[in-house]
Amino acid sequence: PLDSALNIYSHLRKMQTILKAGQQQVVDRRVQGAARTSVAPKPIARSQQRTLRQDVRTAAIANPSAVSKEVVEKCVNAIRFLSIDGVNKAKSGHPGMPMGCAPMGYILYNEVMKHNPKNPQWFNRDRFVLSAGHGSMFQYSLLHLNGYDSVTMDDLKSFRQMGSQTPGHPENFVTNGVEVTTGPLGQGVCNAVGLAVAEANLAARFNKPDAPKIVDHYTYCIAGDGCMMEGLSNEASSLAGHWGLGKLIMLYDDNKISIDGHTEISFTEDVLKRYEGLGWHVLHVQDGNHDYDGIRKAIADAKAVTDKPTIIKVSTLIGYGSPNKADSHDVHGAPLGAEETAATRKNLGWEFGEFEVPQDVLSVFRQAVEEGAKSEEAWKADLEAYAAKYPAEAAEFKQLISRELPKGWENALPSFTPEDKGLATRQHSQTMLNALAPVLPGLIGGSADLAPSNLTLMKMFGDFQKGQYAERNVRFGVREHAMGAIANGIAHHNSGMIPYTATFFIFSDYMRGAMRMSALSEAGIIYVMTHDSIGLGEDGPTHQPIEQLGNFRAMPNMLMIRPAGGNETAGAYKVGIENRKRPTTIALSRQNMPNLPGTSREGVEKGAYIIKDCQGTPDVIIMGTGSELELAYGAAEELEKEGKKARVVSMPCWELYEEQPQSYKDSVLPPSVTQRVAVEAGSSFGWERYIGWSGAFVGVDTFGASAPAPQIYAKFGITKDGVVAACKKVMA
Length: 732
Prior knowledge:
By secondary structure, the chain is an alpha/beta fold. The chain has 28 helices and 21 strands. The longest helix is centred in the middle third of the chain and has 31 residues, at about 360-390. The N and C termini lie far apart (about 105 Å). Residues about 1-65 have low confidence and may be disordered.
C-alpha cells in the first residue's frame, strides 16, 4: 500500500511540473482521491488550482481512469443492447446507428463531457446534439445510464409510446437532458452551430483575463450521412468555419448506409475535403467500432485547435455486432427482431437479459452524477469569485441566464400618434430593434444578406465575426434555412438569448422547415419578414408573397403578426419578446402607411380589436391587416358619408385573437352581424372563418405582377373603392 501511495504521489508531482511548463494534460480524479487518503502532496497555489480545474474540464481524457478495457466494452455494449431492446419492444425505430456509435457515446458522456445528470439545465454544461435524431434510443440509453431522472428504465421500455418521455426523435420540450429537437436531417448540425455561437458570444462578453471563466463549454454533435447530404448543414458549416467556432466539435458517423441502401448509389463526395474547404479542422478515425483510443485522441486533438471548428469522421459499421444485418439498410430503420437480437447477444458475448444492466456497468456510468455535481459546485464558486471582482457584469450575466426579462424593458418601445409621419413598418421595425438593443442584453440576430432592406442592424453593435464574438449583429449571408436553424440553437442555449432573423417574406419558403422546428420545439425566435405583399412592386411575382400569411397562420404554435403602423409594430415586438416558448413571425411592409387613429400596442396583444366604431349595431364590419387597414378605414369613412354604420377591426394576429375569452371575441365580431368584409393583399385562405360564407374578401388569390405597387393594387381591385363596393354588396 505504501509503494502504491508513493507511486501515486510521484505521479501527481510530475503532473504539477508538466502544468507549470504550460502543457495541457489530463488528471485522473479518482487517482487524486486515492492520493488524498494516503500521502498528502505539496499544496498547489490557487492560480495553479484554477489551471488544473480548467485542464480537467477542457481536455479529453487521454488515459481514462481505472476502468478496465473489459468493463468499458461492457459499458459500450450496454448502450447497444438498451437501444436494441427499446426498438424491439416498440416494434419501431432505428437500432443500427446506436449500435455503431456506442463507443462514441460512452467516451463523450463518460470521459469527455462536463454535465450534471441531476441538473440538466446547469448553465456551464457541455452541450450534446444528436443531429441523426432517428437514433434517439442512443441518447435515451445514455441519459438513463448516466443517471438522468428524466429517463427511467420504464421510460426506455415505453419508447415511442403515447405520453412517454422517450419519443421517436429527441424532443427538448419532452425529455430533460435533450438540448434540441432533431429528426429532420441536418437541422441538428445547424442547432449545434447556434449553440456554439451563443457560447462564443457570452464568453467574449463576460469572461475576464483576471477572473475565473464563467462561460466555458463545448458543443458536441453526432451527425450522419443524411445530415451531410442535406444542404442546410453545409450552409451552417460554412458559417461555422467562417466564424472560427473552436468549441464546436462534430463527430460524423460515416457508416455509408441510408434508407435506400449503401450511400455509394448517391453520395460519393469526400466530406472531409469539403469541410477543409469550409475552414474546419478535419480528422478521421478509421475504425470507430474498436479504436477507442483513436476516438479519444481525435477529441483531444480537436480541443487543441481553438480557432476552427472540428469535424471528426468516425467510420463505423451500422448495426455493429449483428451477424446478419450489420452494414445494411435492414438495420437502419427496423427492429432487429428476436432471432437476430439473440444472435447479436451471442456474437458480442452479452449474457444479460432484455433491459438488464449489470451493476459494474451501472456503477461506472453513475459516476457522472457525483462528478457532475462537483463540476457545477466548482463553477458556482468561480461565479462568486467573478462577482466579487465584477459585480455589474455578474448581475447582468445572472439576469440573462435566469431567462427572466429585465424589469421595465417594454418602456423602451415608442408610441405614435396620427400626426407622426407615416412610414413603412419595416422602418418602424428598425426603430423597435434599436430601442430594445440597450435594454435587452440577450437580443442578437441579423439578416440573410438583406440588412439594408430588412433594416435589422442594431446600430450600437458591430458584427459578430471571428475575433469579434461579443458583437450582436449576425451576418448570415444568403443562407435562409441555416439562419433559422442556427437561431433555434441560439434560443435553445437557454441562457436568455433572444434571437431574431430577417429576410424578404417570400424567402420564408427557404427556411420554413427551420421555422416549423421553432414552433415545434418552443423556440422563441422573432422572424422579421419585410416586403410582405404585392406592395413590394417591381420585383414581380417571384418576390411577392401571396400564400405565406396563410401558411404560417396554419402552423401550430406560431404567432403570425401583420402590423399596421408604428403602434402595432411596437405591439408585435412586445408580443415576440414576451413569448419565449413560441416563435413570432412579423410581416412588414415596404411601402409607407399612416399611424391610424385607434391603433395600439395593447390591441395587438389581443390579436384583433376595434379601431373605428359606430353608434349602435354596425351595418357592416370591415377587417384588415397591415397596409390594407388604411383601405378599410377609408372605406368606412366613405360609407358613413352615405349614412351607413361601419365598424373597422384590425386583425394583426389571428392566433392571439383566438386565445381571448369568447365574450371578448363576440364584442369585436358580434355573431349577429354577418355582413363582413376583409381586405388583405394576400390569399383569401382562412378568412372564411371570420367573414363567413356570406362575407366578401378583397385580396389576391393568384400570383402577382411586375409593376409599381399602386398599379398592382389597382389591377387586383385592392383599393378603397374596391372595399366600398364589397361592403355594399354584402349589405344588399
